[in-house]
Specification:
A hairpin with a 5-residue loop joins strand 1 and strand 2. The protein has 3 domains: 27 residues, no CATH class; 186 residues, 3-Layer(aba) Sandwich (L-fuculose-1-phosphate Aldolase), CATH 3.40.225.10; 54 residues, no CATH class. Strands 3-2-1-4-7-6-5 form a 7-stranded mixed sheet, with helices on both faces. It has 303 residues and is an alpha+beta fold.
Length: 303
């Protein structure tokens, strides 16, 4: 009798579960790939964190000892950059391990003072495995000017991130930061921090970094567009086409993301505007989790 491969066993399991609505009705290679991928080892995670730190420094997204990167380990603990160390100089041996409640495992160095923000995100988003916080100049410029990046401008941002909201100002390294993120963290994968910077999170350190990099790129282009007279948003119909294409072609469902603000057609009637507002509100309601909004937000601070 032929041995059944790991891939075939997983595929059969998923196919059977489909009948019980345990997985999306449209199975695609992207969702299957995500399910069968083995969990990264601690050493792999450490290497990725160091690589992300180097990229942040090289890109000028951080200066001096700014910024922090963390990732969830296979044992459930969090591996994070230490406090007071330039990201371009971080090595694997510098990284600090902490438990999910913030208590220290590594005693030789202190974790980032923003560990509380990271732990809050992990607590609210169990599927998230990495968090990156930095101060990329253009995105942080928008955050300092208190301008969100919520307009429907770039197809790539619309389908991968949705709107990028602006969290109210919060004193860094305090419980206030988590409180400011609470309304947005469930539906957004990247958030501008007023007068502070950007935080992004994803499947692994590289994924979280790429999201932060995409936010900075979008902010840079919008900045240039405004020098040239202003950006033009996509219409609601164009955005819907993108969403449908993204789901059918790439297996990405952007319906759970915070909806961006589309262009309002010239000469739109009051009825058209009301319909547009209803559509946006309906999209926002779909992306909100009632269970999450009822949860009491607790924050674990690092030392």
């Amino acid at each position: 009798m032929l041995q059944t491969s790991h891939f075939e066993r997983k595929y059969n399991q998923i196919t059977l579960n489909k009948q019980d609505d345990h997985v999306p009705s449209q199975l695609n290679i992207f969702s299957l790939f995500a399910i069968i991928m083995p969990m990264m080892s601690r050493s792999d995670i450490a290497r990725e964190i160091v690589l992300v730190c180097q990229r942040l420094a090289q890109k000028g997204f951080v200066t001096a000892t700014d910024g922090n990167v963390s990732a969830r380990l296979p044992n459930g603990n969090i591996l994070t950059t230490p406090t007071a160390l330039n990201k371009g100089r971080v090595t694997e041996s510098d990284l600090v391990e902490a438990k999910a409640d913030g208590s220290a495992v590594t005693l030789s160095r202190k974790p980032s003072t923003e560990l509380g923000m990271h732990l809050f995100i992990y607590g609210e988003r169990p599927e998230v495995n990495a968090v990156v916080h930095a101060h990329p100049p253009y995105a942080t410029g928008f955050a300092t000017a208190r301008i969100s990046l919520t307009e429907c401008v770039f197809p790539e941002v619309i389908v991968s991130l949705g709107a990028i909201p602006l969290a109210p100002y919060a004193t860094p390294s305090t419980n206030e930061v988590a409180e400011s993120l609470a309304p947005f963290v469930g539906a957004a994968d990247a958030i501008l921090l007023t007068n502070h910077g950007v935080v992004a999170y994803g499947n692994d350190p590289e994924d979280a970094y790429f999201k932060l990099e995409k936010v900075e790129h979008a902010a840079h282009i919008i900045f240039v567009a405004r020098l040239l007279g202003g950006e033009h948003r996509l219409t609601a119909d164009q955005v819907q086409q993108l969403r449908s294409l993204s789901q059918a072609t790439y297996g990405k469902d952007p319906s759970g993301k915070t909806a961006c603000d589309p262009e309002i057609p010239p000469g739109a009637s009051e009825g058209d505007l009301k319909e547009l507002i209803r559509a946006i509100l309906a999209e926002q309601m779909k992306s909100s989790s009632p269970a999450r909004s009822d949860q009491q937000h607790s924050v674990h601070r690092g030392t």
